[in-house]
Amino acid sequence: MLTNSDITQLTHLRRKLHKHPEISGQEAETAKTIIAELHPLGPNEIISGLGGHGVAAIFDSKIPGPTVLFRAELDALPIQEISANPWKSEIDGAGHLCGHDGHMMFLMGLGRILSRTPVQTGRVVLMFQPAEEDGSGARAVVSDPAFDRIRPDWAFAIHNEPGRPWGYVSTRAGLINCASLGLGIKLIGKTAHAADPQDGVSPALAIAELIPALSSLGIGGDLGDDFRLVTITHCQIGAPSFGIAPGDGVLFATLRTPHDDAMDKITEQARALAAKSAAKHGLAVEFEIHDHFAASINDATATQIACTALDKLDIPNGDLGLPMRASEDFGVFGWGARAAMLCLGPGENHAALHNPDYDFPDDLIPIGTRIFEQIARDILDDPD
C-alpha cells in the first residue's frame, strides 16, 4: 500500500512531468526522469531505449513463474494547454492532455510497493511505452530485440476515461478499442493558367469523387463486427491562388474497424478507389500510412483476473461505455500475451481527453496503483 508520503511524492512527480511534456517520439527527458526515479526502487534491471525512448523496469523474484507486464505511456499531445494550475505545461504547443503523466504514476507507485514487498514468484515488468498517441510506439517496442528479454505472459494497462463515475472501472472481454489507420492520398497532376485549365491536369474532380466514395466505405452505426467508419479529416488542392489551376491534391481519411483483418480489407478498398479515380482523371497517386493502431481486444482470462482484483478492492466495475470507437496503442501487447485494458473513471463531468483544459486528477494515483498491485499479487503470489 502507498503511504501518504508516497502519494505526496508521486503527485509532485506527476506535476513535474506535466510541466515538461514531450510529444510522441521525443520523450527523451521524460524517460531520463523516469529512470532516475526508478533506480532508488532497486529493480533487478532497467532497460532503456526500447522502441525509441521506452523504459522497462524488471522486478524479478528469481522464482520461476509468469512475467506480468504493466504498461503506461510516456508521451504528451501537440495541443496548447489552457489552465491556471501552477503545474501548467511550460512547453509551447504541447501538453499532457490525455493523462499519461498520471498513468506513469500507477507504475511508479507499483514500483515503490514492490521494492518493499516483492512478489513471491515470477517477474513484474513496468513498461513505460513511447509514442502511444501516434500508434507507432507499441509496435516499435515489441519489435525491439531487447523486448525478448521481458516478453510477458500477461499484460495490463489502465487508461483514465472521463464520462465514467469517479473510481469506476469499465472493462470487458473482447473489443475495447477499435483499430484505426490514417490514410494519406496524394494526387499528382499538372498546373495550368486558370484561364486555360485544359492545359493542366487538375485533381479537383477526383477529390470531389473520392470524398463521398471513401465515406461510403464506412458509415459508422452500431459497434459490432460489421462496424466500419471512414472520416475525411483533411483535403487540399493546389495553392491558394486565383490564377493557377491546381496540379496536385491531398486527402486524409481515418479508417476505423473493430478488428485488424477488417482494417486490412477496408484499407485495400480505399486504395483501390483512389487509384481508380486517379487513373480516370489522368493523375498519379501516392499513399502514406499514419497513426496505425491495432484493435485492443481483451483476453477473457486476463479480464476475469482484473475483475476479480477489482471486486477484492471493492472498486465498482462493469462494461459502461464499452467498446469504444477511439483507438489505443495497447492491442499489440495482446498479440503475444493475455492482455486486458481497464478504463478508470475520473468523473462524469471531468474535462474530456485531448481537451485543452484537461488535467489528470491526482487522487486517482493510489487507486490505479492498488489495482495493478492486486492483479500482480493474484497472479504471482497466489499462482494456484
UniProtKB/TrEMBL annotation:
It comes from the Bacteria. Keywords: Hydrolase. Gene3D superfamilies: 3.30.70.360, Zn peptidases. The keyword Magnesium does not apply. Pfam families: Peptidase_M20. This is Amidohydrolase.
